[in-house]
TrEMBL record:
GO terms for molecular function: phosphogluconate dehydrogenase (decarboxylating) activity. Keywords: Gluconate utilization, NADP, Oxidoreductase, Pentose shunt. This is 6-phosphogluconate dehydrogenase, decarboxylating. Homodimer. It comes from the Bacteria. Its EC number is 1.1.1.44. Pathway: Carbohydrate degradation; pentose phosphate pathway; D-ribulose 5-phosphate from D-glucose 6-phosphate (oxidative stage): step 3/3. It comes from Rhodococcoides corynebacterioides. Belongs to the 6-phosphogluconate dehydrogenase family. Catalyzes the oxidative decarboxylation of 6-phosphogluconate to ribulose 5-phosphate and CO(2), with concomitant reduction of NADP to NADPH. It catalyses: 6-phospho-D-gluconate + NADP(+) = D-ribulose 5-phosphate + CO2 + NADPH. Pfam families: 6PGD, NAD_binding_2. InterPro entries: 6-PGluconate_DH-like_C_sf (IPR008927), 6PGD_dom2 (IPR013328), 6PGDH_C (IPR006114), 6PGDH_Gnd/GntZ (IPR006113), 6PGDH_NADP-bd (IPR006115), 6PGdom_BS (IPR006184), NAD(P)-bd_dom_sf (IPR036291), Pgluconate_DH (IPR006183). PROSITE patterns: 6PGD.
Length: 475
């Protein structure tokens, strides 16, 4: 039989996606640059469903029903371009290429545009959930021509995670929007993990809990508003003992966090768009600091000062940390959704933030109970000026604010780094401030560079003649 869908690139992600398609009753064409991976897939999992294997790209494309639909799951960057080029060479007008890799969204915009000129439809699909998700139901964020979604959509929705019967997959918008949204998703994942890390650090270093006790706290937190995949697996990782030493595994892992780049991309894009995603940026920088092992070694022994403020009551302070974590998380998501809105405006994507919250509820790494609240917030008011200002989140953050301040000030007095908590709180205070020192910044800019300023009591731009008589002129 002709295959309904093809997958090329059969490393861990591609194999698992191919198996997922097969398990859902689709006939799946499979291909990999080196045939050995194709053979391995068939040997180990051929019984998952109906696979049609090909050694050459020509046979692979010929084994598909028209319009042909091929998912590429290869290394992002040049390999993806190489594979697109091979496919495009043997495909026909109206065929569809779906890039499921972690492409940079600007690459996706470029690829979509050049393939459109060749009569092919290109879908840049962000896929989250890691290898487990790829096999059992990921969250899928496909962007590309609406026409492509008519035939690709049902296939992708069939293999995606589902929450309350709703697939965690929807057409995001044109060209690079799917990969853009996946990028911000990953950025939010960085922020989430950083905040979890800070909470863990405080429970250990401010309250003296051991990893087992901290695991218990996270297990409890997972029963409430913080319920999420990341909080759940935090408890599991913390409770795990190293087989070799018998110590908590977390104590034998080198404390230098690596990154593959999507967090950095998110921050770079946010800088270009002028959106303060401080939560994500702090998370990216915190990983960089952790990785600066030479500098950290050389800095051991830097004075911590003489102040101290050991929390008096373990239970109260644990609850303070929970509140600070939740409030900081609301800020990080609010900022991420601001970036999505800014990207949408910049590229004319007409993105619907409520849809994203819906498809992130399952399958992906940031899946959480919390996302239902985000969906509700945008359902209620699609024009929300900031997620943080939706009634539910506003209440949550306002109720947390005293705890949040106690946590940040205690951490500061104890010398425990909390860049995520502290910058989220400063962002909150900046957002709600009646007046910001930006007025002074404008005055200084006008002084040294005649950059002009606006007045609170008149329209137009003004300049003070600083080096003359200091009278004001309209610019
Ligand atoms: P890798 O990123 O390790 O890529 C390996 C695959 O790419 C192999 O099939 C390899 O073929 C192929 N490949 C590399 N270079 C070329 C080339 N020039 N031409 C043709 N094929 C090439 O695989 P993963 O499964 O980890 O990830 C696949 C994609 O999915 C990546 O873009 C990744 O960022 C993304 N992704 C990964 C997630 C994860 O959790 N791992 C989660 C979500 C997305 P060969 O066997 O011949 O070497």
């Amino acid at each position: 039989p002709l295959a309904q869908i093809g997958v090329t690139g059969l490393a861990v992600m591609g194999s698992n996606l191919a198996r997922n398609f097969a398990r859902h009753g689709h006939v799946v064409a499979v291909h990999n640059r080196s045939y050995s991976k194709t053979q391995t897939l068939l040997d180990a999992h051929g019984s998952d469903g109906t696979f049609v294997a090909s050694e050459s790209i020509e046979d692979f494309v010929a084994s598909l029903e028209k319009p042909r639909k091929v998912v590429i799951m290869v290394k992002a960057g040049d390999p993806t371009d190489a594979v697109i080029e091979e496919l495009a060479g043997v495909m026909d007008e109206g065929d569809i290429i779906i890039d499921g890799g972690n492409a940079l969204y600007t690459d996706t915009i470029r690829r979509e545009s050049s393939l459109k000129d060749r009569g092919l439809l290109f879908v840049g699909a962000g896929i989250s959930g890691g290898e487990e998700g790829a096999l059992n139901g990921p969250s899928i964020m496909p962007g590309g021509p609406a026409k492509s979604y008519e035939s690709v959509g049902p296939l992708l929705e069939s293999i995606s995670a589902h929450v309350d019967g709703t697939p965690c997959c929807t057409h995001i918008g044109p060209d690079g929007s799917g990969h853009f949204v996946k990028m911000v998703h990953n950025g939010i994942e960085y922020a989430d993990m950083q905040l979890i890390g800070e909470a863990y650090n405080l429970l250990r270093d401010a309250l003296g809990m051991d990893p087992d006790a901290v695991a218990d706290v996270f297990r409890q937190w997972n029963e409430g508003d913080l319920e999420s995949y990341l909080v759940e697996i935090t408890a599991q990782v913390l409770a795990h003992k190293d087989a070799k030493t018998g110590k908590p595994l977390v104590d034998v892992i080198v404390d230098a966090a690596e990154q593959k780049g999507t967090g950095r991309w998110t921050v770079k894009s946010a800088l270009d768009l002028g959106v303060p995603v401080t939560g994500i940026a702090e998370a990216v920088f915190a990983r960089a600091l952790s990785g600066a092992r030479g500098q950290r070694e050389a800095s051991k022994g830097l004075a911590s000062g003489t102040l101290s403020a050991k929390p008096e009551d373990i239970e109260t302070f644990t609850e303070d940390i929970r509140s600070a974590l939740y409030a900081s998380k609301v800020v990080a998501y609010s900022q991420g959704f601001d970036q999505i809105a800014a990207g949408s405006a910049e590229y004319d994507w007409n993105l619907h933030p409520g849809d994203l919250a819906t498809i992130w509820r399952g399958g992906c790494i940031i899946r959480a109970r919390f996302l239902n609240r985000i969906k509700d917030a945008y359902d209620e008011n699609p024009e929300l000026p900031a997620l943080l200002l939706a009634p539910y989140f506003r209440d949550a953050v306002e109720n947390a604010v005293d705890s949040w301040r106690r946590v940040v000030s205690t951490a500061t007095l104890l010398g425990i780094p909390v860049p995520g908590f502290a910058s989220a709180l400063s962002y909150y205070d900046g957002l709600r401030a009646e007046r910001l020192p930006a007025a002074l910044t404008q005055g200084l800019r006008d002084f040294f560079g005649a950059h002009t300023y606006e007045r609170i009591d008149a329209d137009g731009k003004f300049h003070t003649l600083w080096s003359e008589d200091r009278s004001e002129i309209e610019a």
